[in-house]
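Customer escalation, tier 2.

The customer says the design service returned an amino acid string that "doesn't look like it belongs to this structure." They asked us to rerun it and document both sides in this ticket. The original structure tokens are below, unchanged.
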């Protein structure tokens, strides 16, 4: 069986360069920050409602390969510097 490999940073044909990436990045970041407040199920529901792929959801909510900026925000949230969304 063949597996399709897609670079998540690659731009899809016809897509605007910055708008979709920044929107998706914001949504995923919000989902990661919601997880400690609402729990994993709430974060999954939020991300699915915003059409985030299951592979991305699994990766970020398991804290596997989370971007450095998101790790820093989670640390701030744990210290109480950022309130739950």
């Amino acid at each position: 069986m063949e597996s399709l490999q897609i670079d998540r940073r690659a731009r899809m044909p016809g897509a605007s360069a910055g708008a979709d990436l920044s929107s998706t990045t914001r949504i995923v970041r919000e989902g990661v920050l919601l997880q400690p407040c609402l729990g994993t199920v709430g974060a999954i529901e939020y991300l699915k409602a915003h059409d985030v792929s299951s592979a991305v959801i699994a990766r970020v909510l398991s804290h596997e390969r989370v971007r450095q900026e998101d790790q820093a925000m989670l640390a701030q949230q744990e210290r109480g510097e950022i309130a739950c969304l």
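Tier 2 assessment: The sequence is consistent with the input. The helical segments are 19-38, 40-49, 54-61, 68-78. The two ends are 42 Å apart (CA to CA). Sent an explanation to the customer and offered a walkthrough call.
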